[in-house]
Structure formats: structure tokens, C-alpha cells
Write a structure and sequence with these properties.
- The structure holds two protein chains of two kinds.
- Chain A is of the alpha/beta class.
- Chain A contains 16 helices and nine strands.
- Chain A has two domains: 87 residues, no CATH class; 221 residues, Rossmann fold (3-Layer(aba) Sandwich).
- Chain A has a nine-stranded mixed β-sheet, with helices on both faces.
- A seven-stranded parallel β-sheet of chain B has the order 3-4-2-5-6-1-7, sandwiched between helices.
- The relative contact order of chain B is 0.08.
- Classes of the chains: A alpha/beta, B alpha/beta.
- Chains A and B meet through helix 1, helix 5 and helix 10 of A and helix 7 and helix 8 of B.
Chain lengths: 349, 696
């Protein structure tokens, strides 16, 4: 994707993005999200676009925002054109693109679910069409036992066989395992990173899939953003929001990022239905999520069933659009889980 | 009218201060350009010949913008070392200009500090700096958020049609494309034909304003003289340099030509010096000063003496060979006669000229198989690869590896990325369009070469019109040439002296001081070569194939399979003149299984001529491909590794002359010296008949 960056996105970058070009972020006084939202709201009310700030005679326009943000600060930020050009150049060299919320390729799910709170910028690499593909969000702890990872790989593989995408956070453990399972089986995946996109696009785990358009990696933060736990937490909601259905594979009880993300999803955001794995040994974390409204993962036996479940069109699925008789009795009617060997053969057809 | 502009008076004051002339007035177009930039009227391209005063435009505009509270100007120019005159003029206007380049790294931190304190008005950098991570971090990052105006000098380099392909301008081009529309931008060049301007318009945006001056140089008398033989061209310079008016520049295509011409002309009593990109900055400043003050008759220069060098009273420019394009030629010859009524621009041409320019054309891009080899090596290197890693993985010289990586890294998206000192494959494959562009540029440059050949054969009087036409200028009223043509003849005596000169010009063979990244499997060679195992400085009698002994050596090796006694005498003479110390007490040689008697026979006769014993101390045990087929140090050493043996009992304890026919990578001599010294010999002095060109 080498299309020119739209004026709206240019202005958004200039006003809110660090545009880091070295190991250290510059000390520019960027608009904080609440400040930017206020500016955005007035721009919308006055029938302008944020890109109008870049017009040749934009000074009077900018000065009219002086009560929200001092005009001198706006002028300084908008004067960062050379830095912007440099940052765009560095990103483009590594095939990293950037989308603003008004760009056509910006994922509609984020716009729908978050409205004015949608991340104003998304940085990404790979096939941007995949941002509209939805699919199954798979989340889980970084440190899992071998059995859990094997199970996760199989979920990824089945998603691929069912033509469902895997959405994940791209962290070690469950996240990467699920994506790899799908990608190795010829499926697609969308990874939502919180940091170091600039370095991660060089990872051999991703490289070939980015090249052949079956993977997209995105981040709401500057490509050179360094790791912070809090940023990892903030990106969880985008993993859920970009999917159709979520599956929590493993989580601690009331601790860790997976728990926080699932808890937030179940109790506050409610963007997509949430399932939990039913592990051989009971898991206090997953059981607690069930009590918060998560459903046990029903182990769909065929690609068709899997796809229906993920796309919320299965009879009895929590958000199924047409469910005249489903509610309540679906679990009783669900077929007994077939032996693993049979499952596998059905998915391999 | 224009004078009513509120900044005009201030701008004129600045011009007077800058020129040191209280009555100075703007040249045609200067004030319009300044006003355009100060008012922020959009992007501007200024096409004006050197000497018009482009630097006054950006210095004055910068000062006016700074006085209005804008951020500093960033100027990107390929040859900053040559902008000293302009920077002095800037300081007279109160414009604080700072230069950052690879030669003043100690100044980077202080300059960055001054930039941070808002004390610098204009920062001058080279396009290479833009891609340099260290520079990004220490300097550019302090200014990047506040750049008030960007100035691109020599903007024609952005276009594939601009002469003088400079890969780093790829990055400049992309930055310009990504610069938001409202950023102030000035692009300048002295030469841009219609195609270059069309390209610039495409990159800089279609609302670009263009000012374009005229190209004619009425004071220049142009002439092309055909002298097929290089020796005769050297003779022509010696015979006629004194008749050319004032002082001037002799352009050569290569550094070694520049040095050789300078030595030859000095030997004939002319006050000349060589000036190349290989010289230290201080030396270059001193040489320019000597030319500015007419202390030399001429500088014999490569294209390193070029853009930005401004001597209004330069009396002549002579080209020793035909340069690669009309634009290059116009720029170089156009340095003569700026403020004179009369000056000469003379092009010597003959055999071999196009060999050199063709070499430049072909060397501009890496070969497809080299690039594919590097990309394949990176594909298999999961943790990335450093340059030494790549040297081991692909059979390519370090120079060629660096060159390929440079060009690939300037693509966007790039197929490679650098993290620290390691290269990785990126998510973007190298598109076929890259090779299409290579082909297109190569075709353009071949067409330019052909156009220059056409220029060389024009009759006297037609040259200026041809140049202006080729540059899409207005050639309708080019006045007739003012001076008579220079004579085309050379004296036979001088030609004979040239041959003698070339035969006496011996080439030093520098010792290698370090083994390539190793260790080598058979001998375990690695790291620094200690003094006691190193070769001493040696001598080569000739350059392969030149008019001195080079041709004789070539015939001996490939036709007669025997080096004649004339070469023995010449070599002995060279050694007597050279006097290696401590004086050698014996002679030995590098044997070959392919030519078993060629070198031994020569070495024995040479030893006899020197009155020393020749001893067979080294034997070749395995036949290996010739070193010239190996392309980097690691591979060259690997090719030798274990293939030579020393006959321990034969080795003498005194200093020795080690003879071989050809010297190229110097690894054979390096290994030979190590073997001999490890076996008890004293100093080893390499002697070769001919040096071939491909040494890295």
C-alpha cells in the first residue's frame, strides 16, 4: 500500500503522533486524546475537515481554536512537516502504512464500536483488507503449558479450514500460536500490537505472510513505541472489536492482561460474544469468566459449524440474528463432542 | 510594484551586506524568488546557471523568515565542502549557517546544541546524512519538528534524467513527496532540461512555480580535439597548457588519471596539482585557494571539483576524456569565463574514453545475480546478517555488497532493513520495477554518452548551440565564437618523453595489515597480521595495458609466454632506483602450475641482473582458479588457503625480493610474505610487473 496519506491523516499525525524517527521520542507537546477529540468535534460541527488545517491560508482557521488549544501550539505542531515526511519515509521503507479514522481503509468495526473514541491513527503492515474480515479473536496468557498451546494451534488450523480469520494480540504464547496455526494452514490473521511494530515487521515468523497478503499487523501506537504494560492492556479491546467472536484460551483469575481484557469486554464493552475454552482440568480464571457471561467453547465439529459459530449465525449462538427457538435449549441439543480423531478428519476434508 | 513589498528594503540591505557592495541590486528573478518564499506562495524551482546567486535567494529568504519567527532552514546539498564562500557571505548578512558532514563529526554535538538553543538559521547537510542513524539521533532530531523551509540544491539529481546519478537523491525525492503541501520548499539547479523539469514537477507537485534563466555563455570558445592515443593527449597538454589564458581546470574521469596527468605535467615544468575526492578536506581547501589566487596554472581534477566552486576569472577548462553526458560537460565547462570576455573550453577525445564512461554506467547498479545472492543469503539468515557475514555467504567484494545494500536500502518499500549493524529481509519483495528502472536509467545514460560523442565530432563553432539545444534552452541567438581554435598538433619529442615518463612511473604495493574475517580453514589465518609476518611496501613496474610497460607485460604473458629482457632491465632499474632497505640478499618468486616457467625464468634473470641468488623457496601444491575470479578478500584468501608450501631448508635468513607477474588483491604477496617470514626470512619486498585495476 503506497497511496498518499490524506490531508486529514497528515493533520492528525502532525497534531497527535510523536513521529519518532530515532530511538527517542521527540519532546513535542502533542495534543492529548481529550484535546484532540474536542478539536475534532468542533471541526465536525463547523463543517470543516481536520485536513483544512494544512491549507495555504489556514492561519485564521487555526486561530479560531485558540480557546481549546493555544494557537501557537497548534501552529508548532502543524509545522512539523519535515518530521512527518521523515517518519512516513522510514515507515514506508519497511512497508508500514498509516490510516486515519476518515480513511476508507480504516476498519469499520473500530469506527462502529468506538465512535469518537476510536483510535485516530492505525499503523500497519501487510494486507489492510484483512481489517474488515473479522473472525475469531483468540486471547490467552503468555505462559501456557504444551497441551494448551497444542489446542490453540488446532483452533488456528480449524479457523483456517473454516475460512475464518484469527485476530490476536501478537504476544508470545497463545496469541502467536493461534496466528501461526491459522497462517501455516493457509488461513489469514490479524495481529493487533501495542508496540515495536517497526521492529516486529522484520520477524521471520511474520515476513512471508506479510509478503503474501495473508497477515496484517496493526498498532494504534507509533511504530517505534517501546513496550509498556499499560499499552498492552489498552490494545486488548481492539483485538475483540476487530473480531466477530472471541475465545479465551487461558487466563489467571482476576489478574493479568487476558483477564482484564475479557472482564472489560464482558462487563462493559460487550462488542462480541466471548467463549472460554473448557480445559481438561478446571481453570478458576476461565470459570470466573463464565460466571461473568462467557460461554463454554462448544468445539464445533465441522468447518461449517465452526464458521457459523464464529460469524454468530449458528442456531443457539449468543448473538445469532435468527434464533426463533434457540435461546435456552441450544446447549441440550448440541451434539456430544466427537472424539478428536473424528474432529480432525472432518476439518481435513 | 515589487518595490512596494514591505520586505523589499530589508532584503536589499541584506544583499548589500552579503555582497559587501553598498550599491548592489538584485539580479533578474532574485527578488521575485525571495518574495515568493517569504510570502509562502508555494513551492519554487529556480533553474539558473552557476554564479547567478542562488545562495542569496535562500540566505535572504531564511533571514526574513527567521525575523518573522519561523523555524530554521534545512539545506540539502551534495557538496557542502565547497560552499565556504557562500557561508562567508551568509555570515555577513547575520545568517548563522552551520554545516554538518562526514568530515566534521566532532562538531555535531555543539551544532546540535546551538540548534536546540535556536541559534542556527540554516543547517547545511548532505543527502547522505539523511540516511545516517547517528546524524538522525544527534542532530536532525533536534531540528526536525521546527524546519521552516527546506532547500534542495542540485535538484536535477532527483530526476532519472538528471545527470550524475546520485542514489541518495531517491530518499530526498521521497521526503519531498511526503512533505505536507504547506511546507516551504525551494529547489535549485543550474541545469535542467525539459524532461528533468517534468520529473521535478511530478515530485514537487503541480502548483510548482518555476523560474528559468538563459544558458548561453558568450565568452566561452568551445573546441573538440580528436587525439586517439592517450600518450599523445598527455603530450598535447604539455605542449599547449602554457598557451591557454589565465588559470583553469583539467578534468579527468578517474583519480589515477588525475594524479598521473599532474605528475607528468609537473615533470614538464607546469605549475599544476591533482584534486580528487580522495584528498583530505584541508588539502582540497588549500588547492581551491591556490587556484582562486592563480598560484597554479591548473588543477587536474575529477568531478569532485565541481558544483559550488566559483572562480569568475577561470580562463579555461580542458577535458582529458569525454565525460558521460552533455549536462555534466556543460556544468564543468561552464565554470570557465564567467566574468571574463574570453575563455576556452576544450574537449580532448579518443580511444578508451567510452570504456571508462561505460564502466561508470555499468557500475552504477549491482548485477541482478549479486542482488539475488544477497537477498537469498538474508532470507536464510534468521537473525539477520552483518556485512562480514555477507562477505562469507556471497562471493562478492565488500564494496559491491555495500553498494547493493545502499541501493536496496534506498528503495521504498525496501526489500531490506537495518537494525543496528545487521541487515534483515523486510516484508516487501524487490519488485521487478526496480530492474525496469535500472534498465531505464542505463538506457538514458547510454543515450547521453552517445550525445556527448556526437558533440565531440562537431565542427569548430557549432558546439555552444549544440549544448543549449540539448539542454532545451533557446539557441536562436548564440553569438559566434570569439577566439581562434587551439592547435591540434603535438610534437614528436614530447610524445617520446611521455612514453619514457610512463615507463618510469612505478606503482607502490601497500602491505595488507589484516586477514579477512576468518579463520581460514587450512592455515587458520585471522585477525591482525603482526609486523614480523607482514610484507614490506613493494613496487609494480606498470599499470596493466598502459602505454608504458603495461602493453609489453600483456604480450609477454598472453602471447609469448615469456617476459623479455627489456622487462628484466626495467625491473632491475626500478629496484635500483627504489633501494628497498634493508637491502635484499636473495630473490624468490610465486610459482604457478599453469605457467610453470613464466615467472621463475623472469625471476632468475632479474636476480642475475641484480647480482643476487634466486632460490626456489615456495612451491605450489594445488592448482586453484586465478585470483581475479575471486571477488572479495575472504574468498581470495580461501582460494589460496593451503595451496602454497615453503621449502624450509631453502629459505635464507636475509631480506628477500618476492617476484610475481601480476598484483591485484595483494593476498598472494601477503601469504607469500607470511610463509617466508614464518620460515625465518627477514623483510619481504614484493615486486610485480603489472598491477591490474580491480583492487578494492
Amino acid at each position: 500500500m503506497t497511496t498518499a496519506v490524506s490531508p486529514d491523516t497528515q493533520a492528525t499525525l502532525l497534531l497527535t503522533a510523536p513521529l519518532t524517527t530515532t530511538a527517542k521520542a521527540p519532546a513535542d507537546s502533542l495534543l492529548k486524546p481529550p484535546e484532540f477529540r474536542k478539536v475534532q468535534a468542533r471541526v465536525a460541527d463547523s463543517g470543516h475537515a481536520i485536513g483544512d488545517f494544512l491549507g495555504r491560508d489556514a492561519s485564521p482557521l487555526i486561530d479560531a481554536y485558540d480557546d481549546l488549544v493555544p494557537a501557537s501550539r497548534l501552529h508548532d505542531l502543524l509545522g512539523r512537516g519535515f518530521r512527518l515526511a521523515q517518519a512516513l519515509d522510514q515507515w514506508a521503507a519497511r512497508s508500514i502504512w498509516v490510516l486515519g479514522v476518515t480513511d476508507e481503509a480504516y476498519p469499520s468495526r473500530l469506527r462502529t464500536h468506538f465512535g469518537n473514541d476510536a483510535p485516530p491513527l492505525l499503523y500497519g503492515c501487510g494486507n489492510p483488507d484483512l481489517l474488515e474480515a473479522g473472525g475469531l479473536a483468540v486471547v490467552g496468557s503468555r505462559d501456557c503449558d504444551e497441551d494448551t498451546l497444542a489446542w490453540t494451534t488446532e483452533v488456528g488450523r480449524r479457523a483456517a479450514r473454516s475460512r475464518c480469520q484469527i485476530v490476536s494480540g501478537g504476544a508470545r504464547g497463545v496469541d502467536i500460536t493461534a496466528m501461526a496455526g491459522a497462517l501455516d494452514a493457509g488461513g489469514t490473521a490479524c495481529g493487533v500490537l501495542s508496540d515495536t511494530l517497526f521492529r516486529d515487521v522484520l520477524d521471520v515468523t511474520y515476513r512471508d505472510y506479510l509478503q503474501n497478503d495473508t497477515l496484517v499487523l496493526i498498532s494504534p501506537n507509533d511504530p517505534r513505541q517501546r513496550f509498556f504494560t499499560s499499552l498492552r492492556m489498552q490494545r486488548n479491546k481492539y483485538v475483540y472489536a476487530l473480531s466477530d467472536t472471541a475465545l479465551v484460551v487461558a487466563t489467571g483469575l482476576k489478574q493479568g492482561g487476558t483477564w482484564a481484557g475479557a472482564d472489560e469486554q464482558l462487563r462493559r464493552l460487550r462488542h462480541v460474544p466471548v467463549y472460554v475454552r473448557v480445559p481438561p482440568q478446571p481453570s478458576p480464571g476461565l470459570s470466573a469468566l463464565e460466571r461473568l457471561g462467557a460461554h463454554p467453547w462448544p468445539e464445533p465439529a465441522t468447518p461449517v459449524e465452526f464458521a457459523r459459530l464464529v460469524r454468530n449465525t449458528a442456531p443457539g449462538s449468543p448473538n445469532a440474528p435468527e434464533t426463533p427457538t434457540a435461546s435456552g435449549n441450544a446447549p441440550d441439543e448440541a451434539p456430544a463432542t466427537p472424539p478428536a480423531a473424528v474432529q480432525r478428519s472432518l476439518f481435513d476434508l | 510594484m515589487v518595490t512596494a513589498h514591505p520586505l523589499h528594503a530589508r532584503a536589499l540591505d541584506l544583499l548589500c551586506a552579503g555582497t559587501g557592495n553598498p550599491n548592489a541590486t538584485f539580479r533578474d528573478g532574485q527578488w521575485d524568488a525571495i518574495r515568493h518564499l517569504a510570502d509562502g506562495d508555494g513551492r519554487l524551482l529556480v533553474v539558473q546557471k552557476t554564479g547567478w546567486g542562488k545562495s542569496f535567494v535562500y540566505f535572504i529568504a531564511t533571514k526574513l523568515l527567521r525575523e518573522a519567527g519561523n523555524g530554521p532552514t534545512l539545506l540539502i546539498s551534495p557538496l557542502l565542502a565547497l560552499m565556504r564562500n557562500q557561508i562567508e557571505a551568509a555570515s555577513r548578512m547575520g545568517v548563522v549557517a552551520e554545516t554538518i558532514n562526514s568530515t566534521n563529526q566532532d562538531d555535531w554535538h555543539p551544532v546540535a546544541e546551538r540548534v536546540r538553543r535556536h541559534e542556527v538559521d540554516i543547517l547545511l547537510i548532505s543527502p547522505e546524512r539523511l540516511a545516517n542513524a547517528e546524524f538522525q539521533a544527534t542532530v536532525l532530531d533536534t531540528i526536525a519538528s521546527r524546519v521552516g523551509m527546506v532547500v534542495i540544491d542540485e535538484a536535477h539529481c532527483i530526476s532519472d534524467w538528471g545527470h550524475d546519478f546520485r542514489p541518495q537523491y531517491r530518499q530526498v525525492e521521497r521526503l519531498l513527496r511526503r512533505l505536507p503541501a504547506q511546507s516551504r520548499l525551494l529547489a535549485t539547479t543550474a541545469t535542467a532540461n525539459d524532461r528533468v523539469i517534468a520529473d521535478l514537477r511530478e515530485v514537487l507537485g503541480h502548483d510548482l512555480t518555476i523560474t528559468r534563466g538563459d544558458l548561453a555563455r558568450p565568452s566561452l570558445t568551445l573546441q573538440a580535439i580528436s587525439i586517439p592515443n592517450r600518450a599523445n593527449r598527455l603530450a598535447w597538454l604539455a605542449d599547449h597548457l602554457g598557451d591557454l589564458p589565465g588559470s583553469g581546470i583539467i578534468y579527468a574521469l578517474t583519480k589515477s588519471d588525475a594524479y598521473r596527468i599532474a605528475i607528468w605535467l609537473r615533470s614538464k615544468g607546469h605549475a599544476v596539482d591533482a584534486y580528487t575526492g580522495g584528498d583530505e578536506n584541508d588539502r582540497r581547501i588549500a588547492l581551491e585557494q591556490a587556484l582562486l589566487e592563480n598560484h597554479v596554472k591548473a588543477l587536474v581534477a575529477t568531478s569532485a571539483l565541481g558544483m559550488g566552486f566559483d572562480k569568475p576569472d577561470l580562463g579555461f577548462v580542458v577535458h582529458f576524456q569525454v565525460p558521460g553526458s552533455v549536462v555534466t560537460y556543460y556544468q564543468q565547462v561552464g565554470r570557465a569565463g564567467r566574468a571574463l570576455d574570453d575563455a576556452y573550453g576544450i574537449l580532448l577525445h579518443g580511444r578508451g574514453d567510452t570504456d571508462i564512461t561505460t564502466w561508470f554506467i555499468n557500475a552504477a547498479f549491482p548485477a541482478r545475480k549479486d542482488v539475488e545472492g544477497i537477498l537469498e543469503a538474508l532470507r536464510n539468515a534468521t537473525g539477520g546478517a552483518s556485512i562480514p557475514d555477507l562477505e562469507r555467504l556471497v562471493n562478492l567484494g565488500r564494496g559491491r555488497i555495500n553498494h547493493a545494500l545502499l541501493l536496496l536500502g534506498l528503495e521504498s518499500p525496501s526489500p531490506i532493513a537495518k537494525e543496528g549493524s545487521r541487515y534483515f529481509l523486510s516484508p516487501a519483495p524487490l519488485p521487478e520495477a526496480f530492474w525496469d528502472r535500472v534498465k531505464r536509467i542505463t538506457d538514458i545514460r547510454e543515450a547521453e554518452q552517445a550525445q556527448m560523442q556526437a558533440y565531440a565530432t562537431l565542427p569548430f563553432g557549432d558546439h555552444m548551440r549544440f549544448l543549449i539545444d540539448a539542454l532545451d534552452g533557446d539557441a536562436s541567438d548564440v553569438p559566434p565564437t570569439r577566439l581562434p581554435p587551439m592547435p591540434e598538433t603535438v610534437s614528436e619529442t614530447t610524445v617520446r618523453e611521455v612514453v619514457t615518463f610512463l615507463r618510469r612511473t612505478h606503482l607502490p604495493i601497500e602491505p595488507r595489515r589484516q586477514w579477512p574475517a576468518g579463520p581460514s580453514p587450512a592455515w587458520g589465518l585471522k585477525g591482525n597480521i603482526p609486523d614480523r609476518y607482514r610484507a614490506e611496501e613493494g613496487r609494480a613496474l606498470s599499470l596493466w595495458g598502459d602505454a608504458g610497460w603495461g602493453d609489453t607485460v600483456r604480450r609477454g604473458k598472453y602471447e609469448a609466454d615469456e617476459f623479455g629482457n627489456d622487462l628484466v632491465e626495467a625491473c632491475a632499474g626500478m629496484i635500483r632506483e627504489w633501494r628497498p632497505t634493508p637491502a635484499p640478499t636473495w630473490v624468490t618468486y610465486i610459482p604457478s602450475l599453469r605457467h610453470p616457467s613464466l615467472v621463475p625464468s623472469f625471476a632468475r634473470r632479474l636476480a642475475t641482473a641484480l647480482g643476487l641468488p634466486c632460490i626456489d623457496a615456495i612451491t605450489k601444491t594445488v592448482d586453484r582458479p586465478e585470483q581475479k575470479h575471486m571477488s572479495n578478500s575472504a574468498q581470495q584468501l580461501l582460494n589460496l588457503d593451503g595451496s602454497l608450501e615453503v621449502n624450509q631448508r631453502a629459505v635464507q635468513s636475509g631480506p628477500v625480493i618476492l617476484v610475481d607477474d601480476m598484483v591485484d588483491s595483494r593476498w598472494t604477496f601477503t601469504v607469500g610474505a607470511w610463509l617466508l617470514r614464518s620460515s625465518g626470512s627477514a623483510e619481504v619486498f614484493p615486486v610485480a610487473l603489472s598491477q591490474t585495476g580491480s583492487d578494492e
